[in-house]
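Students often ask why inverse folding is considered easier than folding. One informal answer: many sequences map to the same fold, so there is more than one right answer. In these notes we will look at a single instance of the problem. The structure comes first.
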């Protein structure tokens, strides 16, 4: 499975942004897709995930101002982030949890950078 993320950029505080991630390869084996982020000096952390059945999970830090969605026909996952804060500045990574014969494995995209600054 290959993941290609896009949509990062420079946004002013209070603004909005949508990140996109397109999966290719053995996409039928993808269980969960999601977004993680890593700010400088910090560990990578969960932003949001969505299962193949549409169940979602959000980090408390983005809950209520972010919406994750998934388009199975396009093998894509998106996250709409609103009311952006400087604390949202990070590199955002797309993730897919893929079924394999040895169990579920994590696949990662290359990351897309979001900077929230005036």
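Output (designed amino acids):
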């Amino acid at each position: 499975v290959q993941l290609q993320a896009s949509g990062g950029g420079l946004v002013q505080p209070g603004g909005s942004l949508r990140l996109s991630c397109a999966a290719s390869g053995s996409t039928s084996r993808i269980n969960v897709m999601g977004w993680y982020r890593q700010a400088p000096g910090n560990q990578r952390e969960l932003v949001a995930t969505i299962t193949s059945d549409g169940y979602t999970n959000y980090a408390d830090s983005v809950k209520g101002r972010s919406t994750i969605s998934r388009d199975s026909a396009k093998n894509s996952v998106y996250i709409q982030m609103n009311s952006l804060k400087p604390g949202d500045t990070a590199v955002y990574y797309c993730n897919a949890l893929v079924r394999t014969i040895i169990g579920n494995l994590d696949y990662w995209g290359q990351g897309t950078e979001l900077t929230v600054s005036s």
